[in-house]
Specification:
heterodimer, A: alpha/beta, Glutaconate Coenzyme A-transferase, 8-stranded mixed beta sheet, 21% strand, B: alpha/beta, 3-stranded antiparallel beta sheet
Chain lengths: 258, 317
């Protein structure tokens, strides 16, 4: 069965979620992965969006973080201050699922500016919920397309703390949560090493070479002692993902999460 | 009731996305909640349409929070602010999107306080970027936060506190570019907590589903920070889809803003278009996509504002 690199990425990201996870969902790629998990192996997963929707089960992917679909299919919808204070800061969430414009080898993320802050080359949307999602969720998963301009040796701006500029700062600050542990891309899977916290390649998607990963990573990327091949998409996963995108396209006139 | 807002219509002929309040606006009302004031100047019975309400509540140089977390965005009221050519505003919003892009491009804003600025599901805000990157139509000062900070700052404003304390901003760069982000040691545990000033807008503007004839306001669905914004502000303007005699059956925990915390209510059906109003109409996604093209070009943007806002006046009362 043929599939695209984006489909492989979304499916690999979805597989990381467990049925008992309570997941704070970022918009875009994370949203597609989280809902795919819910529609396949993790029907019990609790999805939470920063707009206040708790345990939401959207039938189509939202275009924005506050689509009505999220509220209509949620167990309950709370205010945004309550979401950030009681549910996120209160430590009720096991996984934060994020994307970003730039990531470095320690899982720090930039979604603020490319270039200098006051004279940016590209002004990005900004932090949104990411800064505190990464601090307060039990663990953080990141999903991003591999590209040398996105996987950079040094971020132009640290919007969201991963493990810090040298991999040690998160621990030094006394932040008790694990931080980024998993980085899923369209080429493979990187995991944070327990000691250094550096992200190393632990799996390649079928047909992807080490050379491709090196070429698309802006730092001198390391490979784990054992590099697995990601299991290719199963028919059920691919079918569920395509159905989800088809329903979404029908509802919005275009696909979300792409 | 709803104004036409269909995607098929060519953009040049696209109607403005709101209906002005009827001349005999059957409304409301109250000047003003006394929470932050020494004197209670509550006064019943003024009947306002949108133009009158904006004229009396939104003033040049004001700090204005027009909230809505992708839902119930007060477009009609914002367009009236553009029409009345307000200048020097400090605009506050967690998620500035098309409405603030329009207001910034139209020259209303001096400063923007925000935590996520974009066209949701589409991309950048070109007028916002043009103001930040090229100072067009004039320089825009920005004060940038995270969502958690803004949400806490509104809640602190509503609670009458001078600042908000929360766990956040550790090890990131925003505190180095925003002097309003500081850290405070917890006096009990020593934990370093982030601290930002409370948000206390001069005026909060929101859109809601219903008001009753006494001027109480019911808001449902994704309620965002609207309640906090109204309670944090000195004045508030609420546009609503409809005015009812009675809200009818509802949960005892329904989100209701009592009339005495709302300065003015204006009937403005469709007033959140092209965003959505839960229970009334859906988001017009095609307009969000179309806005990307309109806003990319200064000339095209100005023509759009001229045609759809400046030359589409509010009906006189």
């Amino acid at each position: 069965m043929t599939y695209t690199a984006t489909e492989m990425m979304t499916i690999a990201a979805a597989r990381a979620l467990r049925d008992d996870d309570v997941c704070f969902v970022g918009i875009g790629l994370p949203s597609a992965a989280c809902n795919l998990a819910r529609l396949t192996h993790a029907p019990g997963v609790t999805l939470i969006y920063e707009s206040g929707a708790i345990a939401t089960k959207p039938t189509v992917l939202p275009l924005s973080i506050g689509d009505g679909e999220l509220c209509e299919t949620a167990l309950t919808t709370v205010s945004v201050p309550e979401m950030f204070r009681y549910w996120l800061q209160g430590g009720r969430i096991t996984v934060g699922f994020l994307g970003g414009a730039q990531v470095d080898r320690f899982g720090n993320l930039n979604s603020t500016v490319i270039g200098s802050y006051h004279r940016p080359t590209v002004r990005l949307p900004g932090a949104g919920g990411a800064t505190e999602i990464a601090a307060s969720c039990g663990r953080v998963f990141i999903v991003m397309r591999h590209h040398p301009r996105a996987f950079v040796p040094k971020l132009d701006f640290v919007t969201t703390l991963g493990h810090g500029p040298t991999g040690r700062e998160r621990r030094q600050l006394g932040i008790p949560t694990a931080g980024p542990v998993l980085l899923v891309t369209d080429l493979g899977i990187l995991e944070s090493e327990p000691e250094s916290h550096e992200f190393v390649v632990t799996a390649l998607h079928p047909g992807v070479t080490c050379q491709q990963v090196r070429q698309n990573t802006g730092w001198n990327v390391r490979f784990g002692a054992e590099v697995r091949e990601t299991e290719p998409p199963r028919a059920g996963e691919l079918g569920a993902l395509r159905d989800l995108h088809a329903r979404t396209a029908l509802a919005h006139g275009r696909a979300a999460g792409e | 009731m709803s104004p036409p807002c269909d995607a098929e219509q060519p953009l040049g002929r696209r109607p403005i996305t709101w209906i002005p309040a009827p001349a005999k606006a059957n409304l409301k009302t109250v000047t003003l909640h006394a929470m932050h004031r020494v004197t209670d100047i509550r006064k019943m019975g003024s009947f306002l349409n949108l133009a009158e309400a904006v004229a009396s509540l939104v003033r040049d140089g004001d700090t204005v929070a027009m909230e809505g977390f992708t839902h119930l965005i007060p477009f009609a009221a914002g367009h009236e602010v553009i029409r009345q050519k307000r200048r020097g505003l400090t605009l506050i919003r967690m998620t500035p999107d098309l409405l603030y892009d329009q207001m910034i491009g139209a020259g209303c804003a001096r400063k923007l306080v925000f935590s996520w600025g974009g066209n949701p599901g589409v991309g950048s805000l070109h007028r916002f970027r043009d103001a930040v990157e090229n100072q067009w139509p004039h320089p825009l000062e920005i004060e940038e936060h995270s969502h958690a900070a803004m949400a806490n700052a509104y809640a602190a404003g509503a609670a009458g506190l001078p600042c908000a304390l929360f766990r956040g901003y550790q090890g990131v760069d925003l505190p180095s570019v925003n002097p309003n982000i500081r850290f405070l040691a917890c006096p009990f545990t020593g934990e370093s907590l982030a601290c930002v000033p409370a948000l206390r807008p001069d005026v909060a503007v929101i859109h809601a589903q219903k008001a009753d004839r006494q001027g109480n306001v019911l808001v449902e669905g994704i309620i965002g920070v609207q309640k906090e914004a109204v309670l944090a502000a000195r004045r508030s303007l609420v546009t609503v889809e409809e005015v009812v005699d009675d809200f009818g059956p509802r949960t005892p925990n329904a989100v209701i803003l009592p009339s005495w915390v709302v300065t003015a209510v204006v009937l403005a059906p469709g007033g959140a278009r092209p965003s959505y109003a839960h229970g009334y109409y859906l988001r017009d996604n095609s307009f969000y996509v179309a806005w990307d093209e309109i806003a990319k070009d200064r000339g095209r943007f100005q023509a759009w504002i001229e045609r759809h806002i400046l030359r589409s006046p509010e009906l006189p009362a």
